């Protein structure tokens, strides 16, 4: 798993839940991921009378042709379950006086569906809880201060990730049957070569 923000931490926990061993690579200490600075909440159709279909409709309308519908549909359909799961994992979302999720209404949405944790501290609370769970999970091996330098496809089922160790010249290679690149970074000077190798000098790796 490359990237240890909220997406990387949560995906690592989901994999470990299924009994899978995970190597989690983070360029920084877990406490320093950019998730810490995320102030916005999570959007999910949780209110009475709301639905993933309505959520999708609003997303497509607000996106004005820039949204891939198939991807947005998955996100809208799975968002309620993901929020419930995060709450079950111990993320303390803001609640109303009845103890239910306090849902906010924000631009582009037709219904109240934004959940926050600690108001503008949503990212901080997500990172704090998920990183604590990752640290306690025996199936997750965390490598901090390391960056993926490339992905080498050895066969249809095996990827090798040379990993750049900060302040060191040597490369350590890790083999993986399934690899996720989970990062909010933007690729700069990214050279994608046919199928066999992907190398980026920016913050992200994309496989087309």
How would you summarize what this structure contains?
The chain is of the alpha+beta class. It contains four helices and eleven strands, in the order H-E-E-H-H-E-E-H-E-E-E-E-E-E-E. It folds into two domains: 91 residues, no CATH class; 74 residues, no CATH class.
Detail the topology: elements first, then pairings.
Blueprint: H1 6-17, E1 22-26, E2 42-43, H2 52-63, H3 69-88, E3 103-104, E4 114-115, H4 122-136, E5 140-144, E6 146-148, E7 150-153, E8 159-165, E9 171-176, E10 190-192, E11 197-200
Parallel strand pairs: 1-5
Antiparallel strand pairs: 2-4, 3-4, 6-8, 7-8, 7-11, 8-9, 10-11
Shape summary: globular
Number of domains: 2
Q: Could you give the order of the helices and strands?
A: HEEHHEEHEEEEEEE
Radius of gyration: 19 Å
SS class: alpha+beta
Number of strands: 11
* Terminal Cα span: 18 Å
Characterization of this structure:
A hairpin with a 5-residue loop joins strand 7 and strand 8 (159-165). The radius of gyration is 19 Å and the shape is globular. Helix 2 crosses helix 3. The relative contact order is 0.19. It has 2 domains: 6-32 and 137-200, no CATH class; 42-115, no CATH class. The chain has 4 helices and 11 strands, in the order H-E-E-H-H-E-E-H-E-E-E-E-E-E-E. Strands 6, 7, 8, 9, 10 and 11 form a 6-stranded antiparallel beta sheet that branches. With 208 residues, the protein is an alpha+beta fold. The chain has helices at residues 6-17, 52-63, 69-88, 122-136, and strands at residues 22-26, 42-43, 103-104, 114-115, 140-144, 146-148, 150-153, 159-165, 171-176, 190-192, 197-200.
């Amino acid at each position: 798993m490359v990237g240890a923000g909220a997406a990387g931490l949560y995906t690592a926990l989901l994999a470990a839940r299924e009994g899978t061993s995970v190597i989690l690579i983070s360029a920084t200490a877990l406490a320093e991921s950019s998730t810490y600075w995320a102030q916005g909440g999570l959007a999910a159709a949780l209110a009475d009378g709301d639905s993933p279909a309505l959520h999708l409709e609003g997303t497509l309308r607000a996106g004005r042709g820039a949204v891939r519908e198939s991807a947005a549909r998955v996100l809208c359909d799975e968002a309620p379950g993901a929020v419930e799961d995060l709450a079950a994992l111990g993320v303390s979302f803001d609640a109303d006086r009845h103890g239910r999720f306090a849902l906010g209404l924000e631009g582009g949405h037709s219904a109240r569906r934004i959940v926050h944790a600690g108001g503008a501290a949503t990212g901080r609370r997500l990172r704090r809880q998920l990183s604590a769970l990752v640290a306690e999970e025996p199936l997750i091996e965390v490598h901090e201060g390391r960056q993926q330098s490339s992905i080498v496809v050895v066969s249809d089922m095996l990827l090798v990730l040379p990993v750049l160790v900060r302040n060191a010249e040597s490369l350590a290679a890790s083999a993986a049957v399934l690899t996720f690149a989970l990062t909010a970074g933007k690729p700069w000077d990214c050279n994608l070569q046919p199928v066999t190798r992907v190398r980026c000098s920016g913050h992200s790796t994309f496989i087309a």
